[in-house]
Amino acid sequence: MSVVKPSYEAVYEADRSFRYLAHGADSSLVRWHYHDEYELHLIQSTEGNAFIGDYVGPFRPGTIFLCGPYLPHNWVSLGHFEKGIRDRVINFSDQRIQALAECLPEMRSLQSMLADSRYGIEFSPEASALVIDDFTEIAGLRGMARVLRFLEIMTCLAESGDYQLLSSRSYENESDTQTEERVNTAVSYIIAHCTRELTLDEVASQLNLTPSFFSRWFKKATGYRFIDFVTRLRISRACEQLEVSAKPITNICFEAGFANVANFNRHFLKIKGMTPRQYRESIAIRGKTPIKVSLRR
User: Fold this and answer.
1) Claim: this prediction has a pTM higher than 0.85
2) Which domains are assigned to the chain?
3) Which among 106, 43, 107 has a CA at the least distance from the CA of 76?
4) What's the pLDDT score for residue 292?
């Protein structure tokens, strides 16, 4: 019997400290995979089997898991399941957590739990129940309120200490270097050229892949279609300029790589939940000097 290798997922969130997403049991994101980041994962509905490292065991609604970097994982629902949200997921990088710990000694209280997560953690029903409401509400928060709620969740779970380790080994030395390098090459090229017209065919040629294969592979690796990824990156560039400059919004639109203002406004509203003008006004309301946003994690 051949062993199915986990696929690599590139988690990319340019203008936020962590990625939050919610999806159903039928999502393309439900697969045997791993990534560089930690994953805090709430099962909201359905029952089935959790596959984490070499662990296989049941899961049920209301359970929270924490998987460390490079640890392959998947949750497979059994029997009939309804449409709607099954999973609420937070991905965050070790680099950012460690940098925060250097500035805030209190953050070091998370270190033991984070180390254990490299083997996979399942929190008890009691510990999970402490943060389920916070986990759901974080979806509607923005800015520092969102970050602070995330830290509250992590602190509460760490202080409970009420969890079990799952896998008998970690997988940090078993990553697919070739795939990771290919993803990094594609993302780096897109970042360098996204402010001009950039086609899928052009990026595919940089990797010596056919456009059709690259399209499927990129969606599987990043969770985004190529055009959606480029659009989000351009919006991130625009947000940076809205924060650190007084340039007219029309200029920012074209400099970010959009062909027309109407298209820019439509995508900005869809992704950020407000217009570019409202975004700039919200920065002014903060009453402090804006900090330049880095596009790289």
Assistant:
1) no
2) 7-165 (2.60.120.280), 177-285 (1.10.10.60)
3) 43
4) 40
